[in-house]
Amino acid sequence: MNVLGDPNLTTAIRESFDSGHTYEVILDMLRTNHKVSVSMRSLKTYLKEAGLHRRGNYSPLREVRRAITAELRGPGQLFGYRTMWQVLKQKHNLCVKRDVVMRLLRQLNPQGIALRTRRRFTRRTYHSMGPNYIWHVDGYDKLKPFGLAISGCIDGFSRRMMWLVCGATNNNPSVIAQHYINCVKSLGVIPMRLRTDLGTENGTVAAIQCTLRHAHTDYYAGSSSHSYGSSTGNQRIESWWSFFRRGRSQFWMDLFGDLRDSGNFNGSVEHQCLLRFCFTRVLQKDLDECKNLWNNHRIRPSRLASCPGGIPNELYLLPHRYGSRDCGFPVEDSDLDVFPEASQVTELCGDKDMEEYLQQIMQQHGQQQSQNWESAMELYLFLKHIARL
User: Fold this and answer.
1) What DSSP string runs through 19-82?
2) Which of 209, 230, 259, 352 satisfies CB 3.0 to 4.6 Å to 194 for a cystine?
3) DSSP class of residue 143?
4) Is-contact 146 173, C-beta < 8 A?
5) What pLDDT is recorded for position 151?
């Protein structure tokens, strides 16, 4: 029986190949996640027949230039050549050499290259036993003046982003707890430890973590499974926010700042609700793309770090390849459904009445929800004019 004829396996192989994983890692993922053993020769034969090649068959330079130009119109203007190269592979399905991307960026975005030339931070040494040993949770408030709040969580060992979600608030304990429950439910595992800041928004998620761990007998069981600390001490997620600022959020801060400076946004509750209504889906799509790119990029090893270098998804899913183990604990959906946050539904703009009103206006004028930031901006200005806000 030819196991590579299984559509689920072929889909998994294609996704792993497109994510840039090596052949050895693809085989390891098939063994670990699908309980299927495939020889290296069979894998290479399948990839050849499917037309999947690492080298050669490069995309036309015209298409590469067009894709880079399109990315530079949005948050991509903050990308370095390595990130742009990965975006071209994963998002645009283009095959191109990294040095070609570097040369094109020098031509198309010389100002961005100059802005990225800065001193390197000196970081403290971080220790973690393996994936799911400790998750770091924090909120990102740089877009809050415009009514958009972001919540994120990162695994300390693999540096894999567990969730990255935008919404009306990241100060509501139920909202943070819902992000945690959704993530745990999708993975079927809870972390050994959870680390949050001292804010009151983290009280519910701390209680849920300790409740789920109360029957365990390890050193960090029960109430020891959660720890509070200062924001500056939550170094894993704070370090990631620094990357996020340089590579993504600065674009949105500038975009909304221009909207405010032009007199089309005054910071009122109504304007914030309207901006959330128009931009939340677009921003969340951008956050999902950022999360996916980060989880599939390669972290270079460092002499000063105790955690190994590598691709976050590989570090998280295949810890045995790095001399580590999964430190999480399995959990059933029934254990999570007892918490009311598991079924909580949030409105798009944070105000049910406002959202219904804006939906009615859109239906009356034949408007559709936006797919990119340009159409979201047009929708915002249109609704602002019609609603006389």
Assistant:
1) TT--HHHHHHHHHHHH-----HHHHHHHHHHTT--SSSSPPPHHHHHHHHHHHHTTGGGG--HH
2) 209
3) T
4) no
5) 95
Asked if residues 85 and 68 have their Cβ atoms less than 8 Å apart, the reply is: no
- DSSP code of residue 94: -
Q: Which helix (H) or strand (E) holds 374?
A: helix 373-387
For domain 134-343, give the fold.
Nucleotidyltransferase; domain 5 (3.30.420)
Q: Which residues of the chain have pLDDT under 70?
A: 1-4, 117-127, 232-233, 304-305, 342-349
pTM, full prediction: 0.83
Residue with tokens 């951008």: 286
- Looking up tokens 């990102």 gives 140
Contact present, 124 and 235 (Cβ < 8 Å): yes
pLDDT at 330: 95
The contacts found for 371-377 with CB under 8 angstroms, 24 or more apart, are: 371/282, 372/74, 372/282, 373/74, 373/255, 373/279, 373/282, 376/278, 376/279, 376/282, 377/255, 377/259, 377/278
3-class DSSP assignment, residue 370? coil
Sequence letter at residue 238: E
Domain ranges of the chain: 3-49, 61-115, 134-343
